[in-house]
Amino acid sequence: MPGPTRILLADDHALVRSGLRMILDNEPDLTVVAEAADGFDAVAALAETPVDLVILDIAMPRMTGIQAAREITRTDSTARVLMLSMYDNEQYFFESLKAGASGYVLKSVADRDLIEACRATMRGESFLYPGAVTALVRDYLQLVRQGRSLPDAILTPREEEVLKLVAEGHSTREIAETLVISTKTVDRHRANMLQKLGLRDRLALTRYAIRAGLIEP
Fold first, then answer.
1. Pick from 157, 147, 154, 158: nearest CA to 199
2. How far apart, in whole angstroms, are the C-alpha atoms of residue 49 and residue 12?
3. Cβ contacts of 142 within 8 Å, gap of 6 or more
4. 3-state DSSP percent of the chain in helix, strand and coil, to 5
5. Dist. CA 103–CA 86, nearest whole Å
6. 68-112 pLDDT per residue, tens
7. Element (H, E) at 178
8. Rounded to whole angstroms, how far apart are CA atoms 162 and 196?
9. Which domains does the chain have, with CATH numbers?
10. Chain center to CA of 189
11. Contact, 7 vs 31, CB < 8 A?
12. What residues does the HTH luxR-type domain cover (predicted)?
């Protein structure tokens, strides 16, 4: 039988780490083998101690949890990452997933959700707290329930190029000149994107571009 999941726990508050460690170490299939007080120390500790799962607080000094997650997923192909946050924040949630995290747990309900989140992550599943089920995720699940085939990416590379320029405030003519296509083609791409994403206007497209990481908020 495989041993318990080895966990690296990173949070800049020692009391929080202590409480979370008690929750985790109380489970026979989970064990905290290393701790860190910031993202920089978490990345360094990972180089010294073999772990299966890294739990990162988002708001830490020196290097945030999201920055650490990017570094860990870039350099370590085996350790999985779970984010902890005080904030029910859609932007943090999407940034965490983009950084390679498998889940997002709110500290306010960590005593209820953290254990299941760890186990789900180690099963190769994603753990999402209820508030993180945004319109984008709901649309995706709706497609699954309808049994429709899902493309590898919602938008084509060309549509993403158009979307980025739309979100940056460029006019149809400017986009056409930049991409060396006709204004009619730009309009067709915009209409296709609105239909695919179930959105209504330029503002909604801009919000989607921010969530998708195509532009800075």
1. 154
2. 19
3. none
4. 55, 15, 35
5. 14
6. 999 998 886 689 999 998 887 767 777 888 888 988 899 988 888
7. helix 172-179
8. 14
9. 5-132 (3.40.50.2300), 135-211 (1.10.10.10)
10. 27
11. yes
12. 148-213
Amino acid identity, position 130: P
Exposed e or buried b for every residue in 95-129, given b needs 16+ CB within 10 A? bbbebbbbbbbbbeebeebbbebbbbbbeeeebbb
Contact 190, 69 (CB under 8 A): no
Q: Please count the residues of the chain.
A: 217
Residue type, 217: P
**If you ran DSSP here, which 8-state letter would residue 77 be given?**
S
Q: What does the alpha-carbon distance between residue 53 and residue 72 come to, in Å, rounded to a whole number?
A: 11
Long-range CB contact pairs, 116-121, < 8 A, 24+: 117/82, 118/5, 118/7, 118/24, 118/30, 118/53, 118/55, 118/82, 119/29, 121/53, 121/80, 121/81, 121/82
Q: At what angle do helices 202-211 and 157-167 cross, to 10 degrees?
A: 110
Q: In angstroms, rounded to a whole number, what is the distance separating the alpha carbons of residues 88 and 129?
A: 9
Beta-carbon-side half-sphere exposure of residue 2 (alpha carbons within 13 Å): 8
pTM over 0.90: no
Amino acid at 67: Q
How far is it, in rounded angstroms, from Cα 69 to Cα 65?
Answer: 6
